[in-house]
Design brief:
The complex is a heterodimer. By secondary structure, chain A is mostly helical. In chain A, 80% of the residues lie in helices and 1% in strands. In chain A, strands 1-2 form a two-stranded parallel ribbon. Chain B has one domain (4-92): Arc Repressor Mutant, subunit A. Classes of the chains: A mainly alpha, B alpha+beta. The interface between A and B is medium-sized, with 23 and 20 residues.
């Protein structure tokens, strides 16, 4: 009996020790033990039974292929179930005290999630500003090169687009710094220095699922925008060179909006995921 | 004993067939395969679980946790609607394969 468990240990030694893998190993051990018992009951000797069970195990390489490419969603769910069940099994409860590690309430968690979402919103605004800046830069350069504005001094025609670009860039950098600063007070969550009770976990898991749907629809919108973004360039191209340059500006703005959708769509989901994942080390 | 290379593409069909009968778990499925084939085919543990992984990822089966009579946790599998129609497709494919190969068998 121990031989089987040792065999599995050896087989799994080289594999990544993810929760998913350990869960699978546990399941395989159960199956093999059951098989072993049945063989013994049929009159096999100890050695025969162990030999047969091991010979029918197969090759672990088969498992790596299937298990490793699993989506993170499935992982989070499996971990969630695993850890809550593990906690129950061990009889841990909310009252168990881990000194110095704060217990997170649902309100704290919600505040953190909305903090993450705000911060992502600010970041996406910054990204949008930079892309708009590039769009303006391209557009202005093209305009100022055009013959009908050639009476302007050359230094102005060269300098104005760059100055305009910086007018966009500076506030964007400000936004990045600001968003980072806003997240400072949640450092303890980012680092996983908190605990959560069962009920809060359940509630956050539900939030996670709804944010997941949101992330999906946001991603779809973002992808559609990306796919459509070259259309203005093509359309503009029909009106000559300046038309396609104008089109490129619109492309950049569309991409900026798409990025905003990507960044904001994931925010709530990621925040929940972090809460569910990070808390486990300390909550049980 | 059949070689596992030859039968590789048809492990899925066996698993889905058994799940069409009722939800089941790993060991029960491998036991049933052994029984139905009268020990002419014994599926390896790793083959079985990699098939589960693949089928679940494709949305043909779903898993959930249940408990064994010994009170241990166990993963149960359930066939989905997509799984049922894929099973039918695989059956048709096998019928065709069989017909084609048979034309070259038994000279």
């Amino acid at each position: 009996m121990e031989t089987i468990s040792n065999y599995l240990d050896t087989m799994f030694k080289t594999l990544p020790q993810t929760d998913k893998m350990l869960q699978l190993k546990e399941e395989l051990l159960q199956n093999m033990e059951e098989k072993y018992q049945e063989l013994k009951a049929q009159g096999c000797t100890e050695n025969e039974a162990v030999g047969k069970v091991i010979s029918e195990f197969g090759n672990v390489d088969e498992l790596i292929k299937e298990m490793d490419m699993d989506s993170t969603e499935a992982n989070t769910q499996a971990e969630y179930v695993e850890y809550t069940e593990y906690a129950e099994h061990r009889g841990y409860s909310e009252e168990d005290n881990y000194e110095g590690i704060p217990m997170l309430t649902y309100d704290d968690a919600e505040e953190y999630i909305s903090g993450v979402r705000t911060s992502n919103l600010i970041v996406s605004a910054g990204v949008a500003l930079i892309l708009c800046g590039v769009a303006v830069l391209i557009f202005l350069s093209a305009m100022l090169e055009g013959t009908f504005l050639s009476w302007l001094p050359e230094s102005f025609r060269d300098g104005a687009p760059i100055v305009c670009f910086f007018l966009f860039l500076v506030p964007a950098v400000g936004l990045f710094v600001f968003s980072d600063y806003g997240m400072n007070k949640y450092k303890y969550i980012q680092k996983g220095r908190f605990r959560m009770d069962r009920q809060t976990r359940d509630e956050i898991y539900q939030l996670y699922q709804s944010y997941q749907q949101m992330a999906q629809s946001f991603t779809v919108v973002g992808v559609v925008l990306c796919v459509l973004s070259p259309v203005p360039v093509i359309a503009g191209g029909m009106f000559g060179d300046s038309g396609s340059i104008f089109g490129v500006s619109i492309l950049l703005i569309l991409v900026a909006i798409a990025i905003a959708f990507f960044i904001n769509g994931e925010a709530g989901k990621d925040a929940c995921k972090k809460l569910l994942k990070k808390s486990k080390k300390h909550s049980y | 004993m059949i070689s596992s290379d030859v039968i590789r593409g048809y492990n899925d069909i066996m698993i889905l067939y058994l799940l069409l009968g009722s939800d089941s778990y790993g060991y029960e499925i491998s036991k049933n395969i052994r029984m139905i084939t009268e020990e002419q085919y014994i599926i390896k543990e790793t083959t079985l679980y990699s098939a589960f992984g693949r089928l679940e990822k494709s949305g043909f089966i779903e898993s959930y946790f249940g408990t064994s009579p010994q009170g241990k946790r166990r993963t149960y599998y359930k066939i989905t609607r997509a799984g049922i129609s894929w099973y039918k497709e695989k059956c048709e494919e096998w019928d065709l394969t069989k017909k084609v190969v048979n034309k070259f068998v038994g000279r």
